[in-house]
Amino acid sequence: MSDTVPLWKPSSSSTSNQQCIENGHIQRGSTSYPNAAGGTNGLSGNGAGSILTRNCLHLLKSINFRRCVVALVLLTVATIFYYVYYVDNSPFVGLIHRDTRPSPLIHCRMLHDNVAIESSEAPDHRSEARLRIDPKVLVFVETTYSRLGRDIAELLVYNRIKYKIEVAGKSLPVLTNLDKGRYGVIVFENLDKYLHMDKWNRELLDKYCREYSVGIVGFVSPSEETLVGAQLRNFPLYIHTNLRLRDASLNAASPVLRLTRAGDTAWGILPGSDWAVFQHNHSTYEPLEWAQKNILDYPTDGQVQPPLPTVLQDHGRLDGIQRILFGSGLKFWLHRLLFLDALSYLSHGQLSLSLNRMILVDIDDIFVGEKGTRLRPDDVQALIATQAKIAAIVPGFRFNLGFSGKYFHHGTRDENLGDDMLLRNVDQFNWFSHMWNHQQPHLYDNVTVLMSDMMLNKDFANAKGIPTDSGYSVSPHHSGVYPAHELLYVAWKKVWNIKVTSTEEYPHLRPARLRRGFIHRNIMVLPRQTCGLFTHTMYIDRYPGGRDKLDESIQGGELFQTIVYNPINIFMTHMSNYGSDRLALYTFESVIKFIRCWTNIKLTSAPPLQLGETYFKLHPDETDPVWGNPCDDSRHIKIWSKNKSCDSLPKFLVIGPQKTGTTALYTFLSMHNSVSSNLPTPDTFEEIQFFNKNNYYRGLDWYMSFFPAQSNGSEKYMFEKSANYFDGDFVPRRAHALLPHAKIITILISPAKRAYSWYQHQRAHGDLIANNYSFYQIITASDSAPKALKDLRNRCLNPGKYAQHLERWLTFYAAQQLHIIDGEQLKTHPVDVMTEVQRFLKITPVMDYSNQLRFDAKKGFFCQIAEGNRTKCLGKSKGKPYPAMDDRSLKMLQRYYLSHNTALVKLLKKLGSRPIPQWLKDDLSTTS
User: Fold this and answer.
1) Does 618 have pLDDT greater than 70?
2) What's residue 876's pLDDT?
3) What pLDDT digit, counting tens, does each position of 71-128 carry?
4) How many whole angstroms separate alpha carbon 558 and alpha carbon 552?
5) Integer Cα distance of 760 and 723 in angstroms
6) Using one digit for the tens of pLDDT, what is the confidence trace for 428-452?
7) Which end of the chain has fewer CB atoms surrounding its CB within 10 Å, N or C?
8) Average model confidence (pLDDT) for the chain?
9) Are 423 and 465 in contact (CB under 8 A)?
10) Exposed e or buried b for every residue in 106-137, given b needs 16+ CB within 10 A?
């Protein structure tokens, strides 16, 4: 029996044909072609293709001709797909999807033949009135969780505008400071809350607005009740609510428009079905935005409908107060621009944003990628052509190419030609180093090996004529930049002399509005933004949500707003985004044109080093990093070295202040078998002094080196004691960023006694100022005194402002995380104090300190009981007697600390369950 399997089941009319096939030969004239059952045949190839060919030679004369044609077509299509996916140099590669490439369709009056037309200068909102108000916004919300209120706050944060949130209905906050207004604009999330304020607060707020020329922004809140021609209370103004609208346009003559550019129409249905429109009959009102009724919902019988005002400006001709009223919230992208312009206009320029924006587009992974995902010569040509189009609108624009040389010429034949074409046009682009083998730097634990890999990439660049002096680099997957892998920073400096890099991960990937920059080891780290394209984003029909979703981001959505809100924009894209459907070219050309159409923003570009210098001139407060806890972010854990662990970080901090008994507490805690402190340092002994000193700039790796990883089964309560943490301005914020769940212990004694003790401590350690000036001279030194004298004065006096410093700590840590020890009780009743400390820390097992401590009459305090029943006390400098404070200094200090001690009493009562120390009662009673 033949092994040949028929390609289809024959019908009754094809019996003779089937028999012919099964007999093992096909007649073609006088030539015989044996089939597979009979041996070799005269046609090339075996399998389904050859069988089909032999059969069809016979069936050309049969009634199955049409079936044969269908089968041939199916086989042809299958063959094309086979070549596309499995054959490197197939001429069919790239045919699939190539006809789907989107083309930018952004057209407006500001673009002519895709070239930007210069426009008139945007209005300057500044006036002398701005000198009497602070650049801050007061926002009244319905509740702390209301949606529009959160949208307003997020928009203000994104644009770094200071603000204060107040729940409407409560008493007004203090509006003035001396003869200056605290707020430049008042915003009401719900306009009704303003219209229906109680008489006293309304009169007070309106008076403030008139006196300081402060304007009001109000949003008409959605309502279940549909209003038709309802009059706003006490205003010649009427509203219609719960409308569905479309096709928004702007009033080009409005003086409010500054960031926003008018003249075009935002076609299409507007988001939401709860719009309000305004109707007015007074010259004080001028529409800022119009829209049309949605004709699908409101048939017009073909009649032209008048535009409906959706945003209205009140020039203040009625009552002397300027207002801007919105008929909908911030869901509509155009309202976000108008809101920023409203803040600028109503604050007389105090809240004006710069119109300058800079943009850089990195293309990572040059020469990296699987076959079929890399650039071909026509893709490189498109890259150069699109770059020229963008540069006509954005001066200085060039794509910034990051290369990994190891994978050069690892593509198909056509893709290797693409690699060659990039090198022939090397001077058309900016270049930066990626990693030679695209390896993540945090996986290296040897700086020599890391530098060797970097040198391979540098040698490749020199051999291929790629510039190596950009001073910029990007780490694969942001690895090693943040959380900082110190070896990367060292290697970057030595091999490439890197001065600037970028990452999306500082302080976290999301929310993007909170991304910031920092400087570490003299390398500027800039925040990098996302454009909605990722490594796998290659085809428009596979884009998540389809082309509509991408266009939404471009035309007023996330990408558009990212550029509008950030003065410096660095976007990370991948080489694969520039082949296939070339979505990156489409995306950036489209969004830049859309920005040109709808805003007065002046987009420019520059090399990364210039961007870094500009960024930190704009935001000098961001130069210092704030090290977060990598284990609080799953993304950070993935790009953090595996030989590091957060488990060794301290669970509690003893923060001081100095000369209150912190060393004694440190000693007592270290006696406990379940408690362990950091390793000592050669400079400051048991104190690391990380969060308040220059040690902070050494990085997290340096800090963690003092807390060795614990072996399984011996987990201890790790802690750190640095007594000068207490009054450090930046310490609470830094400590909370790294140790948000840590507990905080502080010790307080009489601030006057503490100041005098510090003075004597400095004398004992040979301080020249302390030995050449009396205590009274130091604490009464004026601000014109020599710097060294003022510094000692401040170290004596400032830590004793206890309430002020505790409030700063309580800004970041919950009251339940703070434990306050009475320093006098620690000295006289340490057993009771240590029992309370163990209860606060929830340490197990609980140690009975009555068997561990004994009073030493010679020292005057309790000491540890050591072997042989002897006492082991602190060093000679501890407990050393010194002369009593002079009466004049004591009285001066009691007066100086009166207000601070009074504030401390209030704070302790507010915290609850904290008894008022006897020394505090004594200080207050003596002063009074």
Assistant:
1) yes
2) 62
3) 777 777 666 555 444 444 443 433 344 447 999 888 787 776 555 556 668 899 999 9
4) 8
5) 17
6) 999 999 999 999 999 999 999 999 9
7) N
8) 89
9) yes
10) bebebbeeeebeeeeebbebeeebbebbbbbb
CA distance 265 to 593: 15
pLDDT of 90: 41
pLDDT, mean of residues 558-566 = 98
Alpha-carbon radius of gyration of the chain: 37
pLDDT at residue number 91: 39
pLDDT the model gives residue 856: 84
CA distance 274 to 217: 19
Please state whether beta strands 31-34 and 25-28 pair in parallel, antiparallel, or not at all (unpaired): antiparallel
Q: Are strands 743-748 and 652-654 parallel, antiparallel or unpaired?
A: parallel
Active site residue 193: no
Buried b (16+ CB within 10 A) or exposed e, 424-433: eeeeebbbbb
- Continuous H helices in 726-815: 731-738, 751-764, 768-772, 775-779, 787-797, 802-812
Helices (H), 671-727: 700-704
* Exposed/middle/buried for residue 60 (C-beta within 10 Å: 0-12, 13-18, 19+): exposed
10-17: list long-range contacts, CB under 8 Å, 24+ apart: 13/63, 14/62, 14/63, 14/64, 17/58, 17/59, 17/62, 17/64
The backbone torsions φ and ψ at residue 488, rounded to the nearest 5 degrees and listed phi first, read -65, -45
Share of the chain above pLDDT 90, in %: 77
CA dist list (Å): 234 to 90, 348, 646:
77, 26, 61
Parallel, antiparallel or unpaired: strands 500-503 and 871-872: unpaired
Catalytic residue from among 499, 593, 651, 659: 659
CB 675 within 8 A of CB 849: no
**C-alpha distances in angstroms, 624 versus 370, 517, 733?**
40, 9, 12
Q: Please, which pLDDT band fits residue 41 given cuts at 50, 70 and 90?
A: very low
Q: What is the pLDDT of residue 716?
A: 86
> Could you give the strand order of the β-sheet that contains 523-527, starting from the edge strand earlier in sequence?
500-503, 523-527, 518-520
CB contact burial 276-287 (16+ within 10 A = b; e otherwise): bbbbbeeebbbb
Out of 241-255, 540-554, 673-687, 886-900, least confident range:
673-687
At 494 the pLDDT is: 98
**Distances, alpha carbon 383 to alpha carbons 398, 534, 844, in Å:** 10, 18, 65
Predicted local confidence at residue 858, as pLDDT: 78
Please calculate the CA angle 158-603-529 and round it to the nearest 5 degrees. 40
Give me the sign of the Cα torsion angle 315, 321, 327, 330. positive
Counts for the chain of helices (H) and strands (E), in that order: 29, 34
pLDDT higher than 50, residue 646: yes
Q: Under 8 Å CB-to-CB from 781, ≥6 apart: which residues? A: 773, 789, 790, 793
**Calpha distance 687→720 (Å, rounded):** 7
Report the candidate in 923, 904, 890, 925 with the shortest Cα–Cα distance to residue 757: 890
pLDDT at 65 (0 to 100): 62
Please state, in angstroms and rounded to a whole number, the distance separating the CA atoms of residues 338 and 354: 15
Task: Kindly report, residue by residue over 482-532, the tens digit of the pLDDT.
Answer: 999 999 999 999 999 999 999 999 999 999 999 999 999 999 999 999 999
Cα 175–chain centre separation: 32
The average pLDDT across 738-745 equals: 97
Q: d(Cα 188, Cα 172) in Å, to the nearest integer?
A: 13
Name residue, tokens 């010569």: 377
Q: Which amino acid is at 454?
A: M
Question: DSSP string spanning 580-604?
Answer: TT-HHHHHHHHHHHHHHHHB--EEE
Neighbouring residues of 735: CB distance < 8 A, sequence distance ≥ 6: 653, 691, 725, 742, 744, 812
d(CA 182, CA 438): 52
